[in-house]
Design a protein that fits this description.
homodimer, Elongation Factor Tu (Ef-tu), domain 3, mainly beta, about 160 residues
Chain lengths: ~160, ~160
């Protein structure tokens, strides 16, 4: 972590929660035009620059059928973020906000979530627009965007009860 | 894993990708009316039953300011899911689909993503509607829902360039 990662006035840090833990296996990498954090937009745009999601070639088959979705939810691991801030001062104005009320990359599990537009697939690579992360950021998951998605399996009683 | 986790005909498994890995620290637990996977709806509904997100009390301050958002993105760890299937047969009809073209809980990093309606906060507990997971599922992250969220920090050059 560099100097820019030092807490700002009033920000508080805490040890990690001790509920339990699990291991994430990165599935690939995000390739973007953003070399540094200063280059990254605060939020990606669906008409932003073309980026690539490069999947481990061993897992390429896991992309089969993805072309039918125009929008994807992409989860990635913001591996340069500190993880110990409970409150933050995003406006640098002394007004503190809880970490879970922000979409800041600084959070106990630094998982970024972007909705992207899928342009095309070439083997183990997806071409997308809408990423906001540094080039090389590890990929954690790719899912069809929730609003566009209808489960393929039949509805269950609990779906109907839920209305 | 129980018998229901056995691969169906045609489904293929693979070792985890070896790009790299990271540790997730669970931040709390989801409390839902669903005791088993058979009880869970395939997708939660914003007018579904009232559920709770119980955060580690040490991290309660990280919820400060969250009441201003009506919708949240919730990430949770589907700790009973197998992680090794590259293709799946969700309709049980022999039509195989890649794991990343599904929102199935079976995926290399079994992170569920739900959009929920926030009803109220009581200390380290959020009352929400829209979860679809088993009672006790570990929580990974909570963020303001992306569509409702405007960054508090000023826009950067890259935002403007991105349109």
């Amino acid at each position: 972590m560099d100097k820019a990662d030092d807490p700002r006035p009033g920000e508080t840090r805490r040890d990690p929660p001790r509920i339990g833990e699990a291991v994430v296996h990165f599935i690939g990498r995000c390739r973007t035009p953003y070399a540094t954090r200063a280059d990254c937009p605060r939020q990606g745009a669906l008409d932003g620059p073309l980026c690539r999601l490069e999947i481990d070639p061993d897992w390429a088959d896991a992309l089969d059928g993805i072309e039918r979705f125009a929008r994807l939810d992409v989860l990635y691991w913001l591996d340069r973020s500190r993880r110990d801030l409970v409150t933050q001062n995003p406006g640098k104005d002394g007004a503190l906000r809880g970490t879970f009320s922000l979409r800041s990359p600084v959070r106990p599990n630094p998982i970024g979530l972007a909705r992207v537009a899928l342009e095309r697939r070439e083997g183990a690579v997806l071409f997308v627009r809408g990423l906001d992360c540094i080039d090389g950021t590890p990929l954690v998951d790719i899912k069809p965007e929730r609003c566009a998605y209808t489960p393929l399996a039949p509805a269950k009683a609990a779906d109907r009860a839920d209305g």
